[in-house]
Amino acid sequence: MTSASTEMIQVGALRVRFLVEAADSNGSVSVFECFVPADSKMPAPHSHDAFEETIYGLEGTTTWSVDARTLDIRPGEAFCIPRGAVHGFDNRGTEDAKFLAVASPGVMTPDYFREIHDVLASTPGGPPDPAKVAAVMHRHGLTPAPPAS
């Protein structure tokens, strides 16, 4: 059974589209595409203790920081982010990028991205309220990384 959604969730510059939700996989995985515009920095490095996340490059190049290690992911390349690893990503290139994210077990939901979108939309043109962002992240099993010193 497939439930590939046509809903594109906008979260700042990032766009997300779920292909498999937990309900479709008996809770085993959540699978979603992330569209990252060229030359864009994604905020909110974080970790998660309830799931692993595997990233598979589809288009362009995304640059990932995982526990202070940096790697570029191009089409056809993949890596797994272990539970508890602090990570984040950017698109430092001149072309848009797209990657597939697989969360196992399937605890990541579209609601997380919708709620983060709402927090960002509540402060147009200004920085989002870090406490509100952190509250949404915690509610969905993500832990914001401490600020870099």
Describe the model.
There is one protein chain. With 149 residues, the protein is mainly beta. The chain is built from two helices and twelve strands, in the order E-E-E-E-E-E-E-E-E-E-E-H-H-E. The protein has helices spanning 110-121, 130-139; strands at residues 9-11, 14-20, 30-36, 40-41, 46-48, 52-59, 62-66, 69-73, 78-81, 87-91, 97-104, 142-144. The strands form three sheets. Strands 1-2-3-11-6-9 form a six-stranded antiparallel β-sheet, covered by helices on one side. Strands 4-10-7-8 form a four-stranded antiparallel β-sheet, with no helix packed on it. Helix 1 (110-121) packs antiparallel against helix 2. The mean pLDDT is 92.
Largest sheet: 6 strands, antiparallel
Structural class: mainly beta
Global outline: globular
Oligomer: single chain
CATH architectural type of one domain: Sandwich
Low-confidence stretches: none
Measured as a percent range, the helix fraction is 10-25%
Distance between the termini: 47 Å
Rg is 15 Å
CATH topology of one domain, which one?
Answer: Jelly Rolls
Mean pLDDT: 92
Tell me the name of the CATH homologous superfamily of one domain. Answer: Jelly Rolls
Q: Which CATH top level class of one domain fits?
A: Mainly Beta
How many helices?
2
Features:
four-stranded antiparallel sheet, 12 strands, Jelly Rolls, six-stranded antiparallel sheet, 149 residues, mainly beta, single chain
Helix and strand topology:
Blueprint lengths: L8 E3 L2 E7 L9 E7 L3 E2 L4 E3 L3 E8 L2 E5 L2 E5 L4 E4 L5 E5 L5 E8 L5 H12 L8 H10 L2 E3 L5
Antiparallel strand pairs: 1-2, 2-3, 3-11, 4-10, 5-12, 6-9, 6-11, 7-8, 7-10
